[in-house]
Automatic annotation (TrEMBL):
SUPFAM superfamilies: P-loop containing nucleoside triphosphate hydrolases. PANTHER family: ATPASE DOMAIN-CONTAINING PROTEIN, DNA-BINDING PROTEIN-RELATED. It comes from Novilysobacter luteus. Residues 52-237 form the AAA+ ATPase domain. SMART domains: AAA (SM00382). This is AAA+ ATPase domain-containing protein. Signal peptide: none annotated.
Length: 414
């Protein structure tokens, strides 16, 4: 460390500025004041939750803002519409099963979830009975009959779980359902939703996950469609991305130029993660320099920092793919042209157009076509064929990452 302070002075200034609370590339938004756009999806979400017997399924591509929409809307709903009720959140991973998921909600609602011997008492003169655990039970033996019964837990049974949950008001958010490996487990989740719906439960379930169709997340359970309403999230509009940029910088008292706003919007391509990432790097640079004006020089330096902070999976698949060719530079140009195309699918012709317009390069469509075929043929390639003459990026975030790299490259070359 050159100055022996481990960068602590710089860090302290950044933390005090609040920039990392305003721009949060690595965590979902959970506060309405940082949440932009999505009016249509949020109001559908609200109306579904407020309809008896209906539950919500939020799905879409990686990083479009699914968790942010679900968390922010649930919070608002519980505070302003449902008048309370518990909010329980479970983020799944590949080791989760139906049992491990429902265990979360049972624990949070303080529902007995272990087999236990209970003492059931009956008043001699009447029929009323209560259950109390054996340990610590104090019975008036003159007036009550006591019978030992077993509180039988059946965590793997959707109907047992539904019975325990159905009278409890609140929202149970199950995020990253796509990570749950077992098809049977996902089917059981769908079954649980169906049972809660049939019983008009005030406990609402929100399922969230990466998928191109809603039924991917419920393993195609047929009868759940009536009660599990889908909210599909697509990329954000450019206007809403601009709101994230402008409002964020405004909160920090920083002023970006119009060119900076336009370039961040272009790189983001509707994915708010990249907006937050680049804006955060710009904001940090501005805090450290003390210059509230954010121009193109600050932006290009921020792009270099953003590349460093990007997900390794993106960096690795990009580098591995290009380095598997003898002349990686020739392929890099094609990938850049593809990243500049509007829309998720592109042809060799579209890439040619982009390279001409944006980079001033004229490459024959036949050459582009050959290289696209070669990239798509590679195992672990970053582009795949999706129709006759049509291609797309395997990871929908890749075009933004490629543009980020290109912006950072320009700075390094200067
Ligand atoms: N409506 C919004 N307004 C402002 N920022 C948003 C909005 N939606 C998402 N973001 C930001 O975008 C990034 C990704 O959001 P989020 O984690 O909600 O996406 P996701 O679709 O759940 O991602 P994943 O597929 O990885 O689970 C986060 O940095 C979050 O802060
Ligand atoms: Mg998420």
């Amino acid at each position: 460390m050159s100055n022996g302070t481990f960068g602590i002075g710089r860090e302290t200034r950044i933390v005090r500025s609040g920039a990392r609370r305003v721009f949060t590339p690595h965590s979902p938004v959970d506060d309405i004041s940082h949440f932009f756009g999505r009016e249509e999806e949020a109001s559908r979400f609200v109306s579904v939750i407020n309809t008896e017997g209906q539950h919500v399924l939020v799905f879409g591509d990686r990083g479009v803002g699914k968790t942010s929409l679900a968390i922010t809307t649930c919070r608002v709903l519980l505070q302003r519409v449902m008048g309370g009720g518990k909010y329980i959140e479970k983020r799944c991973d590949s080791s989760d099963t139906f049992e491990s998921i429902v265990l979360n909600v049972l624990r949070a609602l303080e529902i007995e979830h272990q087999n236990r011997e209970m003492t059931q008492t009956t008043n001699r003169g009447g029929k009323a009975s209560i259950k109390i655990p054996v340990a610590g039970a104090e019975l008036d033996s003159h007036r009550q009959n006591a019978v030992k019964v077993l509180h039988q837990v059946s965590l793997s049974s959707p109907s047992w779980v539904a019975e325990q949950l159905q009278s409890k008001p609140g929202i149970f958010l199950i995020d990253e359902v796509d990570a749950v490996a077992g098809k049977e487990d996902r089917k059981k989740l769908a079954e649980l939703v169906k049972l809660l719906s049939d019983n008009k439960s005030p406990l609402k379930v929100v399922l969230v996950g990466i998928a191109s169709t809603g039924s991917d997340l419920t393993a195609g359970h047929p009868s759940v469609q009536r009660c599990l309403k889908e909210v599909q999230l697509k990329r954000m509009d450019d206007d809403d991305i601009k709101k994230i940029i402008r409002n964020g910088f405004k909160k920090l008292g920083q002023v970006p130029t119009e060119e900076v706003v336009t370039r961040i919007t272009d790189i983001s391509a509707g994915l708010p993660h990249f907006t937050h990432l680049i804006c955060l790097k710009c904001a940090e640079a501005s805090v450290v320099s003390g210059n509230k004006h954010i121009g193109s020089e600050v932006l290009t330096a921020a792009l270099i920092e953003s590349v460093k902070d990007s997900e390794n999976a993106l960096k690795d698949s990009y580098t591995n793919c290009l380095h598997s060719f003898n002349k990686p530079l020739e392929y890099k140009v094609i990938v850049l042209g593809a990243a500049q195309c509007k829309g998720s699918e592109f042809r060799a012709y579209d890439i040619r157009q982009q390279l001409q317009d944006r980079v001033g390069l004229d490459v024959e469509a036949a050459i582009i076509s050959r290289r696209l075929t070669a990239i798509a043929a590679k195992a672990g390639g970053i582009i795949e064929k999706c129709g006759r003459g049509y291609y797309r990026f395997v990871d929908p975030r890749m075009p933004s990452f490629v543009k980020l790299l290109h912006g950072a490259d320009k700075q390094s070359a200067a």
